[in-house]
Amino acid sequence: MSLQLIGAGWGRTGTVSLRSALAILGYTPHHMSEVFAHPEQAELFVQAADDPAFDWQRIYADYTATLDWPGCAFWRELADAYPEAKVLLTVRDPAQWFDSYSSTIYRPVALGWTDDPTGSWNDMARRVIVERSLGGEPHDRRQVIDAFRHHNAAVRATIAPERLLVHRVDQGWGPLCEFLGQPVPDQPFPHLNTRGTWE
Asked: Which of 43, 98, 170, 186 has most Cβ atoms within 10 angstroms of its Cβ?
């Protein structure tokens, strides 16, 4: 397999819903949930942070799409490594995004996941999310929102328009399926992992 779709959007921008949507469309998506299911991947993402020549097939050989962290922190590298892959940037209102981040993933990302016996996930979160994506500051509202905006602007400025879809999950199937050249499924677009149900 080879990546066909690179998700550049950060966590809490609808990536769980999109993981389900892409599976319906026939993709095999990688998401942070895969790192929990395969803890050895955490160490590989740390290696990737240190190695500009990292072989991405070591992680993505069995996947056709990637979403969420940790993959979105490497969107530039993945776009270069898989030049035929399209890029999907999921977005939402920055203030609403921060509120969702702070009430869900902030604690494990910024303060450490308590159920990490080897420390590999926490090391990955620090190196890949806190340092690469958040610029080393996961706490301050203004700085984190600024990092979110800067990231989205960088993706828009770097990826060719014909290769990029900027998408809000409330737009549903239409823009996503048109971008991917897929028929619209005869079922509702998934709406999963809301702030109130996140664990």
From this structure: 98
d(CA 151, CA 77): 14
In a domain, 195, yes or no: no
- Measured CA to CA, the distance from residue 128 to residue 50 in angstroms comes to 10
Distance CA 158, CA 48 (A): 21
Residue 186 placed within a domain: no
Residue 149: inside a domain, yes or no? Answer: yes
- How many structural domains are present in the chain? 1
Mean of the per-residue pLDDT values of the chain:
95
Which CATH number covers residue 158? 3.40.50.300
- Of the candidates 17, 6, 3, 12, the residue with the CA atom closest to the CA atom of residue 109: 12
pLDDT by residue (tens digit) across 46-98? 999 999 999 999 999 999 999 999 999 999 999 999 999 999 999 999 999 99
Residue 195 has pLDDT above 60, yes or no: no
